[in-house]
Amino acid sequence: MSRPHNEKALASREEVSAPLSISDDSILSGLPDVMTLEQVASILQISITGARQMCREKYLPSFKCGAQWRVPKAWLIEYISNGGA
User: Fold this and answer.
1) Looking at the domain assignment, is residue 57 inside a domain?
2) Does any domain span residue 20?
3) 3-class secondary structure, 60
4) pLDDT tens per residue, range 52-75
5) What is the pLDDT of residue 28?
6) CB atoms closer than 10 angstroms to residue 20
7) Which of 34, 74, 31, 75 is nearest to 54 (CA)?
8) Which of 19, 30, 54, 78 is deepest in the core (most CB within 10 A)?
9) Does pLDDT of 81 surpass 90?
10) Mapping DSSP to helix (H, G, I), strand (E, B) and coil, where does residue 50 land?
11) How many CA atoms, within 13 angstroms, populate the side-chain half-sphere of residue 85?
């Protein structure tokens, strides 16, 4: 037995899943041009451990600065705009 879809729920899900456009980076405007994993994890709403694993596996565009991972804001915007791909 299938349930009828709730139109309001579908609309809100589409809003959440809509990719961020390059020009709509207002949520990132107060952040530095190169971010720490803590900042990136907060933006993506994931754990720091998860963000670190994504960097190690080259799923999230990033680079190492010594022993620390860094993510340029432009790369993060592109990553989000592409729907995380």
Assistant:
1) yes
2) no
3) coil
4) 999 999 999 999 999 999 999 999
5) 75
6) 18
7) 75
8) 54
9) no
10) helix
11) 3
Element housing 13 (H / E): helix 7-17
Give me the domain span that covers residue 39: 32-85
Q: Rounded to an integer, what distance in angstroms lies between the CA atom of residue 46 and that of residue 67?
A: 21
Cα three-residue angle 35-27-12, rounded to 5 degrees: 130
pLDDT band at 82 (very low <50, low <70, confident <90, very high): confident
Contacts of 61 (CB under 8 A, 6+ apart): 71, 72, 75, 76, 78, 79
> Can you give the pLDDT at residue 18?
52
Q: Could you tell me the CA-to-CA distances from 23 to 26, 37, 62, 66, 84 in Å, in that order? A: 8, 23, 21, 31, 17
Task: Give the domain CATH number at 80.
Answer: 1.10.1660
4 with 68: CB under 8 angstroms? no
Provide the strand spans (E) within 7-54.
Answer: 34-36
